[in-house]
């Protein structure tokens, strides 16, 4: 059992197929409990930018599952007069209009307005000056604003994701927009890479690389590309997870025998051991307030999820349903625990309400791995398998909305959803 447990925890995602550099393709199914009918007009003069702003906004809102898109059939500037009654009669509760203009310095001025057709009033307006290669970001930010104004929750369309792929003999850490576009390669290696984790400020990624023929934890700066070794002790160095303030990393190390939970400063100094058991303690995750650490342990016989104080000490078991629960992840508000549970031979994504103790299965696949919450807490991204290929999937926390991100060939593994950027 312990060999199976360690293999699942440490090498998950290492065996991957080939992957061509390709845009991730999105397929969405399901809708939210309620859908807001919204008309999104083409932006005036948006043909001058490399990518259609209104199309990106539509795709974002459709993917969320909480909006019913009403096609306007034409472009409408944010300065044009609006007949609210006409749009209300067409079933739209809200209307999005906008324009794009070229600035003298080569940038584009992207402007938009969100209108409430029920109250005949403006809900929001934004103007963004953006470079040609950041037009998608501007569109995502507009979609974020629409999501927040109409749903009361901050949108996460302009955030980024990281994941691991394999092309031929090369393993890669890649980052991309939340919709899979604008992919960039962070690291390429001939040896496996696992467990990428974003820093809270979104400027760094920690990961485990086997390039030294053993698992070693690195932190890489995404701006400069420079990286540093954080943990390279005897045995296995794995499962890095950032503290909410970005000053520390929780790790799983086997330097003193069995794998146990440690914490280290982000620069690799100040190593401290937090658990001391005769079992395997691994996959640590800080709670959002930094006061607790959730982790996986087989101290009860099979792997289950426990919680302890961030400074160590006694631990309390959190999961009791199912005999095999791993990969704990905590929602940004600290109220929901996501994890992978093996039941009836299937590894599936579950969510546990930590207040009510109500559990919900969120996936219907059989080989799920590596859950990661969106920074607004409304969605969970995870790795799964389709047609013997690794893919990424996203599900809303209520299980109603699902979409997959796939490529034409190969595997994608180990997703991690980045934070809100300032």
UniProtKB/TrEMBL annotation:
<feature type="signal peptide">
    <location>
        <begin position="1"/>
        <end position="22"/>
    </location>
</feature>
<dbReference type="Pfam" id="PF07676">
    <property type="entry name" value="PD40"/>
</dbReference>
<dbReference type="GO" id="GO:0017038">
    <property type="term" value="P:protein import"/>
</dbReference>
<comment type="function">
    <text>Part of the Tol-Pal system, which plays a role in outer membrane invagination during cell division and is important for maintaining outer membrane integrity.</text>
</comment>
<keyword id="KW-0131">Cell cycle</keyword>
<dbReference type="InterPro" id="IPR007195">
    <property type="entry name" value="TolB_N"/>
</dbReference>
<keyword id="KW-0732">Signal</keyword>
<dbReference type="InterPro" id="IPR014167">
    <property type="entry name" value="Tol-Pal_TolB"/>
</dbReference>
<keyword id="KW-0132">Cell division</keyword>
<dbReference type="GO" id="GO:0042597">
    <property type="term" value="C:periplasmic space"/>
</dbReference>
<comment type="similarity">
    <text>Belongs to the TolB family.</text>
</comment>
<feature type="domain" description="TolB N-terminal">
    <location>
        <begin position="24"/>
        <end position="122"/>
    </location>
</feature>
<dbReference type="Pfam" id="PF04052">
    <property type="entry name" value="TolB_N"/>
</dbReference>
<dbReference type="GO" id="GO:0051301">
    <property type="term" value="P:cell division"/>
</dbReference>
<comment type="subunit">
    <text>The Tol-Pal system is composed of five core proteins: the inner membrane proteins TolA, TolQ and TolR, the periplasmic protein TolB and the outer membrane protein Pal. They form a network linking the inner and outer membranes and the peptidoglycan layer.</text>
</comment>
<dbReference type="InterPro" id="IPR011042">
    <property type="entry name" value="6-blade_b-propeller_TolB-like"/>
</dbReference>
<keyword id="KW-0574">Periplasm</keyword>
<dbReference type="InterPro" id="IPR011659">
    <property type="entry name" value="WD40"/>
</dbReference>
<protein>
    <recommendedName>
        <fullName>Tol-Pal system protein TolB</fullName>
    </recommendedName>
</protein>
């Amino acid at each position: 059992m312990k060999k199976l447990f360690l293999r699942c925890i440490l090498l998950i995602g290492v065996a991957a197929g080939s992957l061509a550099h390709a845009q991730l393709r999105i397929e969405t199914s399901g809708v939210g409990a309620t859908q807001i009918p919204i008309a999104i007009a083409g932006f005036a003069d948006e043909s001058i930018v490399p990518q259609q702003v209104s199309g990106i906004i539509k795709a974002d809102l459709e993917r969320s599952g909480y909006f019913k898109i009403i096609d306007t059939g034409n472009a409408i500037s944010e300065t044009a007069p609006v007949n609210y009654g006409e749009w209300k009669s067409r079933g739209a509760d809200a209307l999005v209009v906008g324009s794009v203009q070229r600035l003298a310095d080569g940038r584009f001025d992207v402007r938009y307005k969100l209108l409430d057709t029920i109250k005949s009033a403006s809900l929001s307006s934004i103007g963004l000056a953006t470079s040609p290669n950041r037009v998608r970001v501007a569109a995502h930010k507009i979609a974020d604003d629409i999501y927040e104004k109409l749903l009361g929750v901050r949108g996460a369309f302009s955030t980024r994701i990281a994941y691991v792929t394999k092309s031929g003999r090369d393993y890669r850490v890649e980052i991309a927009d939340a919709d899979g576009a604008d992919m960039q390669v962070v690291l390429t290696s001939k040896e496996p890479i696992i467990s990428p984790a974003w820093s809270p400020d979104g400027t760094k990624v920690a990961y485990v690389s086997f390039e030294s023929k053993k698992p070693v934890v690195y932190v890489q700066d995404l701006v400069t590309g420079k990286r540093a070794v954080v943990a390279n002790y005897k045995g296995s160095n794995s499962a890095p997870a950032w503290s909410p303030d970005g000053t520390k990393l929780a790790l799983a190390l086997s330097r003193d025998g069995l794998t146990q939970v440690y914490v280290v400063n982000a620069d690799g100094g100040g190593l401290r051991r937090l658990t001391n058991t005769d079992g395997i303690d691994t996959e640590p995750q800080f709670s959002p307030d930094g006061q607790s650490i959730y982790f996986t342990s087989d101290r009860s016989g099979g792997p289950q999820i426990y919680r302890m104080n961030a400074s160590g000490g006694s631990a309390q078991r959190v999961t009791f349903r199912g005999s095999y629960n791993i990969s704990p992840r905590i929602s940004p508000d600290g109220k929901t625990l996501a994890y992978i549970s093996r039941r009836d031979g299937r590894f599936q994504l579950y969510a546990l309400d930590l207040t009510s103790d109500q559990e919900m299965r969120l996936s219907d696949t059989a080989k799920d791995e590596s859950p990661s919450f969106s920074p607004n807490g409304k969605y969970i991204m995870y790795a799964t398998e389709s047609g013997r290929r690794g893919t990424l999937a996203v599900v809303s926390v209520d299980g109603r909305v699902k979409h997959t991100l796939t490529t034409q060939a190969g595997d994608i593994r180990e997703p991690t959803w980045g934070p809100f950027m300032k």
